[in-house]
Design brief:
- The complex is a heterotrimer of chains A (247), B (202) and C (474).
- Chain A has helices spanning 9-14, 16-28, 44-48, 56-66, 77-86, 94-101, 106-114, 134-139, 155-160, 184-187, 189-205, 216-228, 238-242; strands spanning 2-5, 32-34, 71-74, 103-105, 127-131, 167-168, 210-213, 234-237.
- With 247 residues, chain A is of the alpha/beta class.
- Chain A has two domains: 2-114; 127-242, Rossmann fold (3-Layer(aba) Sandwich), CATH 3.40.50.
- In chain A, the strands form two sheets. Chain A has a four-stranded parallel β-sheet with strand order 2-1-3-4, sandwiched between helices. A four-stranded parallel β-sheet of chain A has the order 6-5-7-8.
- In chain A, helix 12 (216-228) links the parallel strand 7 (210-213) and strand 8 (234-237).
- Chain A starts with a strand and ends in a 5-residue tail after the last helix.
- Chain B is globular, with a radius of gyration of 22 Å.
- The longest helix of chain B is centred in the N-terminal third of the chain and has 11 residues, at 8-18.
- Chain B has one domain (38-200): NagB/RpiA/CoA transferase-like (Rossmann fold), CATH 3.40.50.10420.
- Chain C is built from 22 helices and ten strands.
- In chain C, helix 3 (46-62) crosses helix 12 (249-261), helix 9 (160-171) runs parallel beside helix 10 (180-196) and helix 16 (333-343) runs parallel beside helix 18 (371-384).
- In chain C, the strands form two sheets. A six-stranded parallel β-sheet of chain C has the order 1-10-7-4-2-3, with helices on both faces. In chain C, strands 8-5-6-9 form a four-stranded mixed β-sheet.
- Chain C is an alpha/beta fold.
- The longest helix of chain C is centred in the first third of the chain and has 24 residues, at 19-42.
- Classes of the chains: A alpha/beta (247), B alpha/beta (202), C alpha/beta (474).
- Chains in contact: A-C, B-C.
- Chains B and C meet through helix 1, helix 4, helix 7, strand 9 and strand 10 of B and helix 2, helix 3, helix 4, strand 1 and helix 8 of C.
């Protein structure tokens, strides 16, 4: 199985540590991974703004970069949701379909495809609050949704539970959106930032030292809100914890 | 030949028939739905009624219905009855104006059935002798109900009770009038009755 | 009608400044959402109920003209006058004519979103008809000359102090008495004489039953039962989409409606009107006002399934923080954002963007409207039809070019990181930086992942450096 690694634009630019951890983790799990150098973005900013036609060339570039891989893995739920569910600015060729059907968010890939449940190298002696992005929660379905009353499950929590020393904080509104929403974060910046701060405070009040998520974009926003308001809470991507980061 | 402007009715129906975007063949009518708890016990009814702010009241041994109601509302000036089995200070059919109804402290009615799921009681023009507004203008409501006249839930109610198809006016009351429109504080007796009390008569 | 786009972001930001209101609003609606969850948890059949409700509504909408005719036939046979209105204006004219035939000058009404949609009060009052809302929340909004903030909680954005001030002005109550009990009592006392003296009563309605010609009105205050019955004239206004085929279908909807709306099992009053009262007259106005057009919209027709419970508003994290008034429309919140543009694309072009597309609304919807997917679809429609700001459209065009060119993209990333590292704070956090108004920017890093990968992995693997040539310098 040849894996193509997709690292979203903001992660490439601002969170290279997370990208490195994703690569190393997949390798620790015995996978052969390649990172196509000409990748940029999945086109989500244009798609979610309604400007679908402006996403066409970006989507084409994405397919060109990734069509040759058996599987594509990305440490970002919202990008995977966009590619899987909304990638329709371009003609649906077999290559496009292949890419859309074979892209996985990292937690999904580990949980459902590799079916790995143990990370013997991992130890994280901290209390964490899990932030499921709305894309992972309600589109990729990696955790149960409170609105539907379905039996509890959480793929990220199941994976994290294998990490030595970790404990979990229970926020009051675990499924509440943090307000990032891609371009929403700037079109309605004040409301977005208030939602972000509320989210951060919910985790902080519940005793979380860290917010952990499979989506760095949500955390970039939350971190910005926490820092501006001097809320002492740290942020870490699930890939880093599973890869063995201690702090 | 005179030309007639099509009526609003014909224009609307015409537009609805023009495109038929949801196609009738794609959306068959589901069968009649009967779901949920089929318990039609007095206990379920009472729990549901109390959740919605209604009361249960029982005559003490040897007490008449009239005494029981008087004990519940010792200060009531006028107790109006809509049913022959209860003798109030006046009858609903005696009420000639809304102003008279507005002065009624307690209205006593017989309900033909209740719904256990909701603690709801049914009233129509039959029980109210066509005094439809008067029951809502009174301050308090006493409902006489038989333990055997309970249906399990909303599905069974609509399927079994013919009153829904025969009454001109049929109201399900589930507790008294209520509002929480001022800062979320629950208040009983917004515009209609301030309290609703069920008395079992068997 | 104003066609300037509603400034949702700005109005929402203003509501955020009202700290006490904001906190109450968010907590109150969240509490209702939790009560709704509780009702769902105690009913194992909840999801099946939602599914059936959706199927019944879909079937009804697919057969709407036939069911409307059936309804009309039965209602007429029961002695009800049935009217049809193409739009708000026609609706208002019909109401005005019925009232003037009866020389009715005082109209009391229970809550109805559709009369707000038709701007009926604005039409009737200059014609000498006094219209009095009898629902407490709706009355508060009427006194304050505001649209309802929420479909079932019209005044949820107000605190007791606001109500006390309004009532002091109009009912001459003590402005310092902020006790909700005495305020509600003041409304009861003020409303009673108006109710007793009314010439006509008006209600909305939640459901029309084709099989029997019945319409159903759900309230908690009992004000619809008073409005309908005190005078000899009852006018009911309902949208043509309110139909269900059979009486038994009500079982499904009544079980879902109040549980979804308020987390209470049922409204205190569920009233079935099938015939005029003895000696009275009853009129029903079936209103289209854009509904037939909406039914012909492939992506959006299913929004007509809505039963107006407001669950999507209660769960919406944006609505809870921006408040209903920020939508500048009769219908606010997520459902408003997908139906308002069908009334006026330009004016409500901002509303589908007043969402993070988080999807919670669709999950709580008792009739399973895919609200967040329709929000997404509306964005496409509005962008295609040039109903989004020119600047935004240009930015997206540029972003599309940048993100499809690896070379330009690498150069942009590298200059962003350099800027973050080297620019003084006052330059970075300037007036154009929407991100930075209430948030810190991400921290700059010494190298991008792309650069790290080229340096650390390319040599070991068989992978070759591709054609960008930008080298990932940052």
């Amino acid at each position: 199985m040849k894996i193509g690694l997709f690292i979203p634009c903001y992660m490439d630019a601002f969170y290279p540590k997370t990208a490195i951890a994703t690569l190393e983790l997949l390798e620790k799990l015995g996978q052969t991974v390649e990172y196509p150098l000409d990748q940029t973005c999945c086109g989500q900013p244009m798609v979610n703004s309604g400007c679908n036609r402006d996403a066409k060339e970006t989507e084409e570039l994405f397919v060109k970069n990734f069509a040759e891989y058996d599987v594509i893995v990305a440490p970002s739920g919202s990008c995977v949701h966009n590619i899987r569910d909304n990638f329709d600015a371009l003609e649906q060729t077999p290559a496009v379909k292949h890419v859309r059907e074979n892209i996985y968010e990292l937690v999904e890939f580990i949980y459902d495809v590799l079916k790995v449940r143990e990370f013997p190298w991992a130890e994280f002696p901290h209390k964490v609050g899990i932030h499921n992005s709305c894309a992972t929660l309600r589109s990729l379905r990696t955790a149960s949704m409170s609105e539907l009353g379905e039996p509890f499950f959480s793929k990220p929590k199941t994976l994290l539970s294998a990490v030595k020393g970790i404990s979990f904080a229970q926020p009051q509104r675990p499924d509440e959106c943090c307000g990032f929403g891609g371009t929403y974060s700037v079109t309605e910046e004040a409301i977005s930032a208030k939602m972000g701060l509320d989210k951060v405070m919910d985790h902080s009040t519940a005793g979380a030292e860290y917010i952990v998520s499979a989506d760095t974009s949500c955390m970039m926003h939350q971190q910005g809100c926490a820092e501006r308001n001097h809320v002492p809470i740290k942020f870490i991507h699930i890939a880093e914890i599973l890869n063995g980061a201690r702090a | 030949m005179a030309t007639h402007e099509p009526s609003a009715r014909d224009v609307i129906l015409g537009k609805l028939r023009e495109k038929r975007v949801p196609r009738p063949t794609d959306y068959p009518l589901p069968g009649i739905v009967t779901l949920g708890d089929m318990d039609r016990s007095v206990k379920r009814f009472e729990d549901a009624l109390q959740l919605l702010g209604g009361d249960i009241w029982a005559p003490q041994s040897g007490e008449t219905l009239e005494d029981a109601v008087r004990r519940k509302f010792p200060d009531a000036g006028s107790i109006c009855s809509a049913t022959d089995e209860f003798k109030g200070t006046l009858k609903i059919t005696d009420l000639k104006t809304l102003q008279e109804a507005d002065k009624v402290d307690v209205m006593v009615v017989r309900s033909p059935f209740g719904i256990a799921e909701m603690g709801s009681i049914f009233l129509s023009e039959v029980e109210l002798h066509d005094h439809l507004a008067d029951v809502h203008l009174a301050q308090h409501l006493i409902v006489l109900l038989s333990r055997t006249a309970l249906t399990a839930n909303m599905h069974t109610a609509y399927q079994e009770r013919q009153e829904f198809k025969t009454a001109g006016y049929g109201v399900l009351m589930s507790g008294p009038s209520a509002t929480a429109d001022i800062q979320g504080v629950l208040i009983r007796g917004a515009q209609g009755v301030r309290s609703l009390t069920v008395i079992w008569t068997d | 009608m104003s066609t300037k786009p509603v400034p949702h972001a700005k109005a929402g930001a203003e509501f955020l400044q009202e700290k006490a209101h904001l906190q109450f609003h968010d907590e109150r609606l969240w509490d209702i959402r939790q009560k709704r969850d509780h009702q769902m948890h105690i009913l194992p059949e909840w999801q099946e109920l939602r599914q059936k409700a959706s199927e019944i509504k879909e079937h009804t909408l697919a057969n709407l003209p036939e069911y409307l005719e059936q309804f009309e036939r039965n209602a007429k046979a029961n002695g009800i006058h049935v009217h049809w209105a193409r739009d708000g204006q026609e609706h208002n004219r019909i109401v005005g004519e019925i009232l003037s035939e009866h020389k009715a000058k005082s109209l009391i009404k229970s809550k109805s979103m559709i009369t707000d949609e038709c701007e009926m009060r604005e039409y009737l009052e200059p014609r000498g008809v006094t219209v009095t809302e009898t629902d407490l929340g709706e009355r508060i909004q009427q006194l304050d000359d505001q649209l309802p903030s929420h479909v079932v909680l019209p005044a949820v954005q107000k605190l007791t102090g606001d109500v006390a001030a309004l009532f002091a002005k109009y009912y001459h109550t003590d402005p310092n008495d902020h006790d909700p009990h005495s305020l509600a009592e003041a409304q009861r006392q003020a409303a009673r004489p108006v109710i007793l003296g009314a010439d006509a009563g008006m209600t909305g309605g939640n459901f029309l039953v084709a099989e029997t010609g019945t319409f159903v009105v759900c309230t908690n205050e009992g004000n619809a039962d008073l409005s309908a019955n005190v005078s000899g004239l009852h006018i009911a206004t309902l949208g043509i989409e309110r139909l269900v085929p059979r009486m038994s279908d009500l079982g499904v909807f009544i079980r879902l409606l109040s549980r979804s709306a308020l987390g209470s099992p049922i409204t205190q009053y569920t009233t079935h009107f099938r015939k005029p009262k003895k000696g009275g007259e009853m009129h029903i106005i079936l209103v289209d006002n854009g509904r037939s057009d909406r039914l012909a919209m492939e992506q959006f027709w299913s929004s007509l399934k809505c039963i107006r419970c407001g669950a999507c508003m209660n769960t919406c994290p944006v609505y809870r923080r921006s408040g209903g008034q920020s939508y500048g429309a009769v219908y606010s919140g997520p459902i408003g954002a997908i139906i308002d543009p069908t009334f006026n694309k330009e004016k409500y072009s901002t509303l589908p963007f007043a969402s993070t597309l988080n999807g919670s609304c669709s999950n709580v919807c008792p009739v399973k409207i895919n609200i967040h997917e329709q929000l997404f679809e509306w964005r496409r429609v509005l962008a295609e039809e040039n109903e989004i700001p020119f600047v935004k459209k240009e930015i997206m065009k540029m972003a599309g070019k940048l993100l499809s060119s690896p070379r330009m993209y690498r150069a942009a990333i590298s200059s962003t990181n350099i800027a973050l590292k080297t620019m003084p704070r006052f330059v970075l956090y300037n007036a154009f930086n929407q991100w930075g108004k209430h948030r810190e920017l991400p921290h700059p890093v010494s190298e991008t992942f792309n650069h790290w990968y080229r340096k650390n992995r390319l040599k070991q693997s068989g992978q070759t450096s591709q054609q960008t040539g930008a080298g990932g310098q940052s």
